[in-house]
Design brief:
The protein has about 260 residues and is α+β, with helices and mostly antiparallel strands. It folds into three domains: about 1-15 and about 35-115; about 130-170; about 170-263, no CATH class. It is about 60% helix and about 15% strand. It is built from five helices and five strands; from the N terminus they run ααααβββββα. The chain has helices at about 5-25, 30-125, 130-145, 150-170, 235-245; strands at about 170-180, 190-200, 205-210, 215-220, 225-230. A five-stranded antiparallel beta sheet has the order 1-2-3-4-5, with helices on one face. A hairpin with a 5-residue loop joins β3 (about 205-210) and β4.
Amino acid sequence: MNTAAMRTLATAAVFTLLSSTAGAQNQSPASQLEGLMQQWLAIEQQRESMRIDWQEEKLVLEQRLDLLTAESRGLQKHLKKHSGLKTKAQQKREELAAEQNTLESRQRKLSQALVQADRHVNALLPRLPEPLKNHWQENIQKLALLKEHPSKRLDLYLDMYKSFDRFREKVTVHQALMPIATQENNTEQQEILVDQIYLGVAKGWYLSRDGQYAGFGEAGSDQWLWYSDNALSEQLADILKAAKNPETARILPLNIKLSGEQL
């Protein structure tokens, strides 16, 4: 019980005592004394009861306060724990977002590189020597089947560029059927089996198996061009022997016509 309630009860007891005293003036002194004693005892009992009730209520309140304090501490611990988890989760989200941005950037760069490679390959393809051109065309057919696999497409483009570098750094002998005019000023051509000799990717020569037809070729602005020059037959025959038997090869002269076209 709080202090205000105790004061109210005490005031009421005093008022009762005063009223009883006023009413007891017509009684005998002994009766008045006995009445006063009973009233005093009743007031003391009320006061003691109030004191006990207040102590009990105080104990209950203190227990409730202890429970609330303990609960508050527990909640604070949980909040700190969840706050730490939230911080870690936020950090993980930020890391994943950064990785996603990096992957998207790489994907954009890869897509741009593939577009540039496609343009470059298609621009070079018509100007390539026949054996290298055949290899590139095989890869281009594979590329058409890998539109949804950019990494595999990139591998094919890299293979094409590597094959270009290898071809450019060596002499290549290749057998092929070529359309050749068998007579001067004759527009009709026949398919004749020849040996082609390529010096890198920009220059080449051919010689028919019977040694009757010879000529040279080069990369033009938009295609590979062949020219007839039968006077090269003897030189090309010696070079073919040397190319097929490199252990007995020797330095041989060869007429080369230079042009402004390069690969």
